[in-house]
């Protein structure tokens, strides 16, 4: 028994924060940001939009475009590093907003590796024979934890959500073997220091701006390149695949230079490596499903995809999957061309 993706949805909020605007608030330049990260703009949710709204919009897009009956869904695995609240779970709110009344919902936080960890979790649930239809969604409102006075981080992140429907199949399509890794010694290099049980919110934590994300950028950069390159090679070996049998690489979108370095280490044609970081920046749990959504027209039945990621924790991993048969996609080519042109994913 395998778990295969049969439907995809995506959503980004309409408001654009471009490099020009950022360069007016912190000491940087449009050129520096684009040259060092590949990012031109990112989407920012308004104050009334929480992570659960982003996730629900991506799910609505999936349910509507692929004619999926929401009552069939048995579970929702929500990857997010920016929950609506520390308690209660954001997945509960998403189940309510999306009308998933026959599903249980659970949050999973592995930062930028969240979607891959969630995919592996949901695939294992299906392969066990206990579940047949699970929605996996990656959603983050990174603007809620980004310090727009810190040029080391505010240039990188954006808001968005992507969702996939995983279904049981007896074909050989779907998720293959994965490798997921965690190294807690990396925690202090990339974290939001306050607001959790270790350093609860206080006047001091607010004064020190400790509720915002901090990172040692160049250290994380090197770790990301080395880890994603190695784990990608390892997962290919585990699945007995050669690089030339991979049709598409879907890397986590943190920095174009990381993506290029991983592609070069795999010795894979750059045309096969999917990139949309220029439009959305790093949307953390959402980068991989948004990439799958954005480029879904390119994926053909039977093609092999390699997905790889790295994030806070440290957490990283890779998986391979054989693209299967999608449910009927109601969206038309012209709609999609329009979506690409405008860089807006509407529901
Ligand atoms: N504008 C202009 N100059 C800057 C900026 C900026 N926004 N940021 C840093 N600089 C300067 C530095 O001060 C430094 O100046 P100096 O040489 O005079 O000291 C110089 O640029 C180089 O600094 P680095 O930090 O070495 O710059 P780098 O090329 O590494 O780029 C960046 C910084 C973009 C943050 C990069 O390190 C990066 O992308 N890191 C990885 C991010 C990542 O992958 N995160 C993991 C996932 S996130 C998650 O899990 C939530």
Q: Could you write a compact summary of the structure shown?
A:
The protein is built from eleven helices and 13 strands. It is an alpha/beta fold and 347 residues long.
Describe the structure.
The chain is an alpha/beta fold. The chain folds into two domains: 2-175, Thiolase/Chalcone synthase (Peroxisomal Thiolase, Chain A, domain 1); 176-276 and 294-322, Peroxisomal Thiolase, Chain A, domain 1 (3-Layer(aba) Sandwich), CATH 3.40.47. The protein has eleven helices and 13 strands. The chain has helices spanning 19-23, 30-37, 51-65, 90-98, 114-127, 203-207, 217-238, 256-266, 277-280, 287-294, 333-342; strands at residues 2-11, 16-18, 41-43, 75-79, 104-108, 133-141, 159-169, 174-182, 190-191, 214-215, 248-251, 304-311, 315-322. A five-stranded mixed beta sheet has the order 1-7-6-4-5, with helices on both faces. It has a four-stranded mixed beta sheet with strand order 8-13-12-11, sandwiched between helices. Strands 2-3 form a two-stranded antiparallel sheet. A hairpin with a 3-residue loop joins strand 12 and strand 13. The longest helix has 22 residues, at 217-238. The chain starts with a strand and ends in a 5-residue tail after the last helix. Mean pLDDT is 95; it is low at 341-347.
């Amino acid at each position: 028994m395998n778990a295969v993706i049969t439907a995809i949805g995506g959503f980004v909020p309409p408001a654009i924060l471009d490099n020009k605007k950022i360069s007016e608030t912190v000491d940087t330049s449009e050129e520096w940001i684009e040259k060092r990260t590949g990012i031109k703009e990112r989407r920012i949710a308004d104050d009334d939009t929480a992570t659960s709204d982003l996730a629900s919009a991506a799910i609505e897009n999936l349910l509507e475009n692929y004619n999926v009956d929401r009552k069939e869904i048995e579970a929702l695995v929500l990857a997010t590093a920016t929950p609506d609240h520390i308690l209660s779970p954001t997945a509960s709110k998403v189940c309510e907003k999306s009308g998933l009344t026959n599903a249980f919902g659970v949050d999973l936080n592995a930062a930028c590796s969240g979607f891959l960890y969630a995919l592996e979790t949901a695939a294992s649930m299906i392969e066990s024979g206990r579940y047949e239809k699970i929605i996996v969604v990656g959603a983050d409102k990174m603007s809620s934890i980004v310090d727009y006075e810190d040029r080391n981080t505010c240039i990188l992140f954006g808001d968005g959500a992507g969702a996939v429907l995983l279904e049981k199949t007896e074909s050989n399509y779907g998720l293959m073997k994965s490798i997921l890794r965690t190294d807690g010694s990396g925690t202090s290099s990339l974290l939001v220091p306050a607001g959790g049980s270790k350093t609860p919110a206080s006047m001091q934590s607010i004064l020190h701006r400790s509720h915002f994300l901090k990172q040692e950028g160049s250290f994380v950069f090197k770790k990301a390149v080395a880890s994603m390159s190695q784990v990608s090679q390892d997962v290919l070996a585990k699945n007995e695949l050669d690089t030339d049998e991979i049709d598409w690489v879907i890397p986590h979108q943190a920095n174009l230079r990381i993506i290029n370095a991983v592609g070069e280490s795999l010795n894979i044609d750059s045309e096969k490596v999917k990139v949309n970081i220029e439009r959305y920046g790093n949307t953390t749990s959402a980068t991989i499903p948004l990439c799958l959504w954005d480029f879904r027209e390119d994926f053909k039945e039977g093609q092999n995809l390699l997905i790889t990621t790295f994030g806070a924790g440290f957490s990283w991993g890779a998986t391979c999957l054989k693209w299967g048969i999608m449910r009927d996609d109601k969206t038309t080519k012209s709609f999609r061309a329009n979506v690409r042109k405008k860089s807006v994913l509407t529901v």
